[in-house]
Each structure stands twice: as C-alpha cells, then as structure tokens.
Specification:
The protein is of the alpha/beta class. The chain is built from 12 helices and 10 strands. Strand 6 and strand 7 form a beta hairpin. Helix 2 crosses helix 12. The chain is globular, with a radius of gyration of 18 Å.
Length: about 290
C-alpha cells in the first residue's frame, strides 16, 4: 500500500526529528497514528493462540503497513505495552522495529509522559532513545526545565511537553491563573523560550480545545511543532485545529488519532478499515488546510 516517500532518491532521512517532521509538514502530511493497542480489542481471528504481546506486535505491524504512506509519525503509548508485563518492553521494541521497516520515513513519538528529577530522567532517556530508538517523547512540565535537562540535551530528538491536554478535566490545574495568565500558557512560553535552546521542543495541546490551541500558537514560534491528540474518538474539531495554526502562519502541527483508526473494524478487514479511517482523516486535514 506504500506509495513512495517524501524525499528524492538522493536524500537521506534527516538526523533531527524536528527536520524530519518539517519535511513531512511541508509535503502536507500532518497525520499521526496512535498505537494505543488493547489486546482485548484485537480481532479474534488474529493469531488467537499466541501470547498477548505477540498479538499486539502483529496487530501493530499490520496497522503500520496499512497506513505507512499516510502517517508522518506513529505514537506508541507506553502504558499499553507496560500493561503486558515482562513481554511489554520487547513488544514495544518490536513495534518500533515494524515502523522502521514499513514506514522508515515516519517519526516515532513515544507517548510516555515522563517526568521526575534529573537523575531519574536520565534513565528514561536511555530507555526511550537508546534502547527503544524513539525519535521523540512526551513529558510533563511540572518539575521544571532543570529536571528535563537529560531530555533537552538530546538535540536530535524532540521533546513534546504537555501544555493543554485533551481530557475533559484538563482545566483543573492547567487553567489556574497566575499573573493574569493561565498555567498552560506559562508552560508554553517557558518551553518556547529558555527550554528550547537546542530547538528540539514541541508542545502537546488537545484537539478538544481549539481556542486554547489558538492562544498557545500566539505564545510560540510558528515553526514549533504541536502534537494534537484528541481527533477521532475524542471528538476534536479538525477544521478548528487547522484554522488555529493557519491564523498563526504555522504548518507545524501533528494531528493524532488512535482508537478511531485502530478499531475501525473488529473483523478480518481490520487493516483495510484502519487505512480507510486514516485516509478519511488525512483527507479532512488536507481539506481544512486548503480551505
């Protein structure tokens, strides 16, 4: 199903994740496929007698192969792999291997939402970037930029910092006002300023909050990538998300959908149905960009 890459034959994949995603965005690719793979929702016909971790790997491989020419990135969610116990790390590594094989030009964003003191974060960095080979990771800002230094020092990677998350209760703390500005905007400004010395920071803002996204775009450079979960099953407004970026003159946005693509069908046609769902969302994004 793959239709060709974004680079001319003489080019190679950029070393920097930021450069890679800029190339995708310039080519009109903004779709991220989230791999929130629940073994209970894998079609029963797929390797029914295999261990759960092996079924997850096979399911993810089929999804990636079906969508490889559509997605600029894949976002495996660490929690679903950790829930598999001892085999989970292997399943995550093999899933990333499948992405490298079937979609070598796609970025791998590890959705792990890590945050701790610096020495602990050093372990998270080694696991995510060296052991698993991810290109980017999601992190919490609550401990401050100093604690995130082990991530920020990896200049070739991207560090997506949570600003305004997609869940309904996000505003409980994120909307608290300090010095006349909500907390999520303080986060965005810090990330865009002193945290971004190496140019390897991005933000996470949910598609369910397009007005907040518009305000964040006012606070950060147009070239700063924003990862936008919440399209699809969570009901995010794709047209409003694209408009918020367009008003700021930015094409650096990544719209993620997980369940609406992964579980488009529970039958033998699950991969074809996942592709159809990804094509539909990609077409919706492109139409909004062209509007």
């Amino acid at each position: 199903m793959r239709k060709g890459g974004i680079y001319p034959p003489a080019m190679v994949r950029p070393d920097s994740c930021a450069e890679l995603l800029r190339a995708h965005n310039a080519a009109g690719r903004h779709l991220v496929v989230g791999l929130d793979t629940d073994p209970e929702r894998i079609p029963a016909m797929l390797s029914p007698n295999a261990p759960a971790a092996d079924r997850v790997v096979e399911f993810n491989r089929r999804i990636v192969e079906a969508t490889a020419d559509l997605a600029c990135a894949y976002k495996p969610n660490a929690a679903f792999f950790e829930a598999l116990g001892g085999d989970g790390f292997r399943a995550l590594r093999e899933t990333i291997g499948s992405i490298r094989s079937a979609a070598p030009e796609a970025a791998v964003i590890l959705d792990a939402k890590r945050a701790d003191i610096g020495s602990t974060n050093a372990g998270y960095v080694t696991a995510a970037f060296d052991e698993l080979g991810a290109d980017a990771i999601t992190v919490h800002p609550y401990l401050g930029g100093e604690a995130l230094e082990p991530f920020l020092r990896r200049e070739e990677k991207l560090v997506f910092v949570l600003a305004r998350t997609s869940n309904p209760g996000a505003g409980e703390f994120q909307d608290l006002v300090a010095d006349g500005v909500p907390l999520y905007r303080h986060v965005a400004r810090a990330v865009a300023g002193r945290w971004n010395a190496a140019g390897n920071c991005g933000l996470v803002v949910g598609a369910t909050w397009p007005e907040e996204l518009r305000l964040v775009r006012e606070d950060v450079p147009a070239e700063m990538p924003i990862l936008i979960p919440g399209a699809g099953a969570q009901g995010g407004d794709v047209a409003a998300v694209v408009a918020a970026n367009r008003e700021a003159g930015s094409e650096a946005f990544l719209i993620n959908a997980s369940r609406s693509i992964l579980y488009a069908s529970s039958g033998e046609d699950f991969a074809d149905s996942a592709r159809a769902a990804a094509e539909a969302l990609d077409a919706e994004i492109r139409a909004a960009v062209a509007a």
